[in-house]
Design goal:
By secondary structure, the chain is α/β, with parallel strands linked by helices. Helices cover 37% and strands 18% of the residues. Helix 2 packs parallel to helix 5. It binds 1,3,4-trihydroxy-5-OXO-cyclohexanecarboxylic acid. 1,3,4-trihydroxy-5-OXO-cyclohexanecarboxylic acid binds next to loops.
Length: 145
């Protein structure tokens, strides 16, 4: 069976492409899904890209991933900086976890410098724009051999 990668996206990322394009660019989450699916097809990985504005939904998808996914790529968005619940959920997942931020969070406000999710993430991407998802997919393929 083709290994499945969950690509989870937190609050406000449904507006990607329209939301603060000077920071997050003009590409949409559908563009991200298409790019990641193409890399997945090359690398022998299936993807499921999901987005929610609700913390509990992200937690539920992480629980689902425990059974359904070989790896998780996650842009927790604002939950990065607030959510012990997302961290605890990720700590129950056994495969590789890659954290992605479109913007270079360390060059932004101080409250964006701390990530709960980084306590679990095996790798962290920040500042690569939406290309960070594609890079994360390639690294995921490498990690999963
Ligand atoms: C973000 C950075 C977060 O600080 C912010 O709350 C987001 C997006 C990024 O992709 O750069 O919503 O995770």
């Amino acid at each position: 069976m083709t290994p499945m990668i969950y690509i989870l996206n937190g609050p406000n990322l449904n507006l990607l492409g329209r939301r603060q394009p000077e920071i997050y660019g003009r590409e949409t989450l559908d563009d991200v899904a298409a790019a990641c699916a193409a890399i997945g097809a090359e690398a022998g990985l299936e993807i499921r890209l999901l987005q929610s504005n609700w913390e509990g939904q992200i937690v539920d998808w992480i629980h689902e991933a425990r059974e359904a996914a070989a790896g998780i790529i996650i842009n927790p968005a604002a939950l990065t900086h607030t959510s012990v619940a997302v961290l605890d959920a990720l700590n129950t997942f056994e495969g590789p976890v890659i954290e992605v931020h479109i913007s270079q969070v360390h060059r932004r406000e101080a409250f964006r410098h701390h990530s709960y999710v980084s306590h679990r993430a095996d790798a962290v991407m920040a500042g690569f724009g939406v290309h960070g998802y594609a890079l994360a997919m390639r690294h995921m393929a490498h990690l999963l051999g």
